[in-house]
């Protein structure tokens, strides 16, 4: 049997998935956790990949492994010195310390110029703002930077001995234009103060090299890799009209598009996908972890939390949570905190609080769907994925809050599966078609979803004047 290996190095964990190239069926899997926090030593990702690789027994699969590829959390700033040693912990996509730099960059050039240059408008998540923070706050570290890459580029280096990236991940840096597939090095010069070496941007089907002997899988071909959201799109074999809503550490809403989608409001980032097309995307910092935080507050596990949310009134008895617990990116409120409104003596029960958390995850995702539709991206149905989609309360409420049909694909690690699919492409020259199975489908029903949307929009406007 020929086997390919896909890796998902995400914010909270690293997952390794080996599949049969012919069928896409799972052969082996392993995972390892990443530490909490928004700044991480990239060496930790290498160690977690090693643990997950061993847990899946990849080395034992020997010569059957013909390819591997990495999809990883986007945007993280991996800045290394001439010896490839990080000069600073990698600042992750959800680290908002560079919010002032992002605002300054937008004020300096203006939103239209940014959209023209890189098809997005800087917020604290994007790599260039983090480099600007480093130059401003840690000039000695910045002066030692020889190469800048992203989390997946770093893992490509560990797997092959060479830096490389792809256009999906490069498009999240704010110094790469996905319409011309060129780095905009003048933006690095202007906002970082110099132009470090940058990983070559490989075509979607290209090889990044071969696995180094330490990975013990017979020098298999390594694919270009990609950002994790492009990985999910590839794993789901996403078609136009289908929109992914991923409720993971981040909440993301995206579709594939043959042409770039431009949004000078900055909410939609005009990323590239992993097939040569585009991936307009909105991302939230607060998503599945809002449920975990709610469960911790109520001192219950996730299963009991779900039971509570299912036992509440559909509209949480009027409770509305603005879920900006870790600051927020969409809307761009880096310093925001959460707000609970609509409390009465009657509705303050654990069931309604749990339900309010579920609705608080769904409401910003519904805003994002409306924004995509407003830009002309067809929104025919939603594919709901990510750890948070395991919540029955959430999946049953999603269609009513979104106002569009929702399908929940069979539970799989779609980011890692997308990476495996790309690995097969690099190893065989052909992008396999494995298909996908839908586990459950939901239609929008009832009118409570519209009420919940109105209350959320009113609360957001009242608290943040948006
Ligand atoms: N049954 C569940 N109910 C609610 N949240 C869940 C459930 N199972 C997992 N999660 C949450 O899903 C998140 C992980 O989702 P995942 O998609 O794997 O993350 P990532 O985006 O980092 O890859 C965690 O925050 C976890 O608490
Ligand atoms: O910042 C974004 C997308 O722009 C996030 O989606 C990150 O890519 C992190 O992903 P997860 O850890 O949630 O998978």
From TrEMBL:
SUPFAM superfamilies linked to this entry: Actin-like ATPase domain (SSF53067)
Keyword hit for Kinase: yes
Binding site for substrate: 74-75
Site residues, Important for activity: 8
Superkingdom of origin organism: Bacteria
Active site positions: 228 (proton acceptor)
Keywords: ATP-binding, Carbohydrate metabolism, Kinase, Nucleotide-binding, Transferase, Xylose metabolism
A Pfam family hit: FGGY_C
Membrane spanning stretches: none
Residue ranges of every copy of the Carbohydrate kinase FGGY N-terminal domain listed in the record: 4-235
Keyword Mitochondrion carried by entry: no
Segments forming domain Carbohydrate kinase FGGY C-terminal: 244-427
Family: Belongs to the FGGY kinase family.
General function of this protein: Catalyzes the phosphorylation of D-xylulose to D-xylulose 5-phosphate.
Annotated protein name in UniProt: Xylulose kinase
């Amino acid at each position: 049997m020929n086997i390919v290996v896909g890796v998902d190095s995400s914010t909270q964990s690293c997952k390794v998935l080996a599949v049969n190239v012919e069928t896409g069926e799972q052969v082996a899997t392993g995972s390892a956790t990443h530490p909490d926090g928004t700044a991480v030593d990239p060496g930790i990702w290498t160690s977690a990949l090693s643990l997950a690789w061993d847990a899946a027994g990849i080395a034992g699969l020997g010569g059957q492994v013909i390819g591997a590829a990495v999809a990883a959390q986007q945007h993280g700033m991996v800045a290394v010195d001439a010896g490839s040693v990080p000069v600073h912990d990698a600042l992750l996509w959800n680290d908002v310390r560079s919010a002032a730099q992002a605002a300054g960059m937008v004020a300096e050039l203006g939103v239209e110029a940014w959209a023209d240059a890189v098809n997005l408008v800087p917020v604290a998540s994007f790599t260039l703002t983090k480099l600007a923070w480093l130059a401003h706050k840690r000039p000695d570290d910045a002066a030692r930077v020889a190469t800048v890459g992203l989390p997946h580029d770093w893992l490509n280096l560990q797997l092959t001995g060479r830096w490389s990236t792809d256009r999906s991940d490069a498009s999240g840096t704010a110094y790469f234009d996905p319409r011309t597939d060129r780095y905009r090095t003048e933006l690095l010069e202007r906002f970082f103060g110099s132009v470090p070496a940058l990983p070559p941007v490989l075509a979607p089907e290209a090889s990044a090299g071969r696995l180094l002997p330490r990975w013990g899988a017979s020098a298999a071909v390594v694919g270009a890799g990609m950002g994790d959201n492009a990985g999910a799109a590839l794993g789901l074999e996403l078609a136009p009209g289908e929109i992914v809503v991923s409720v993971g550490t981040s909440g993301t809403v995206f579709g594939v598009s043959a042409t770039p989608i431009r949004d000078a409001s900055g909410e939609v980032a005009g990323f590239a996908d992993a097939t040569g097309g585009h991936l307009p995307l909105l991302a939230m910092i607060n998503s599945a972890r809002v449920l975990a935080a709610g469960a911790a507050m109520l001192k219950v596990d996730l299963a009991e939390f779900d039971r509570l949310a299912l036992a509440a009134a559909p509209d949480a008895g009027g409770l509305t949570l603005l879920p900006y617990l870790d600051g927020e990116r969409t809307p761009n409120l880096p310093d925001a905190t959460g707000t609970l409104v609509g409390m009465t003596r009657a509705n303050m029960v654990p069931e309604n609080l749990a339900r309010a958390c579920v609705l608080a995850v769904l409401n910003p995702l519904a805003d994002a769907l409306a924004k995509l539709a407003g830009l002309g991206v067809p929104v025919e149905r939603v594919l709901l994925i990510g750890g948070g989609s395991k919540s029955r309360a959430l999946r049953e409420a999603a269609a009513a809050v979104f106002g569009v049909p929702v399908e929940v694909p069979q539970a799989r690690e779609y980011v890692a599966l997308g990476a495996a699919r790309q690995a097969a492409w690099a190893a065989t020259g052909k992008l396999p078609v494995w298909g996908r199975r839908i586990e459950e489908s939901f239609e929008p029903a009832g009118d409570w979803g519209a009420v919940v949307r109105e209350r959320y929009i009113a609360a957001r406007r009242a608290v943040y004047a948006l």
